[in-house]
Amino acid sequence: MPTNDKTAAPLWSGRFTEPTSELAQRFTASIAFDRRLAAFDIEASLAHSRMLHATGIISKTDITAVDKGLAQFRA
User: Fold this and answer.
1) Residue 18 main-chain phi, psi, to 5 deg
2) CA 30-2-14 angle, 5° bins
3) Does the pTM exceed 0.90?
4) Residue of 7, 19, 24, 27 with fewest CB within 10 Å of its CB?
5) Angstrom distance (rounded) from CA 11 to CA 28
6) What are the domain boundaries of the chain?
7) Please, are residues 63 and 53 in contact by the beta-carbon 8 Å criterion?
8) How far apart are CA 41 and CA 61, in angstroms?
9) Nearest to 49 by CA among 26, 33, 66
10) Contact (Cβ atoms closer than 8 angstroms) between residue 8 and residue 2
11) Chain centroid to CA 47: how far?
């Protein structure tokens, strides 16, 4: 579970002796925010795949696979 403690060391800090690059810090800065949006992203992806199926763009097999994959992410 992410922490809001600004003094906590990054998860990877125990594996490397060199300081984390500024680019890596900027790249991972949104992880906590992204985690909060994950459920909404999954719901939007499910709705999108249902639309694609309803319009004949993807098959029933495809939408079943999408549903199964997104259920794994949700879990």
Assistant:
1) -85, 150
2) 95
3) no
4) 7
5) 11
6) 31-74
7) yes
8) 22
9) 66
10) no
11) 17
pLDDT band at 1 (very low <50, low <70, confident <90, very high): very low
Mean per-residue pLDDT of the chain: 83
Q: Which residue has the higher pLDDT, 30 or 50?
A: 50
Backbone angles phi, psi at 51, to 5 degrees: -65, -45
Question: What average pLDDT does the segment 38-52 reach?
Answer: 95
Cβ neighbours of residue 5 under 8 Å, at least 6 residues apart?
A: none
Write out the DSSP string of 21-41: PHHHHHHHTTHHHHHHHHHHH
pLDDT for 62 beyond 60: yes
**SS3 label, residue 52:** helix
Give the Cα separation of 56 and 48 in Å (integer). 12
Residue-wise pLDDT for 9-32, tens only, equals: 556 666 777 777 888 777 777 888
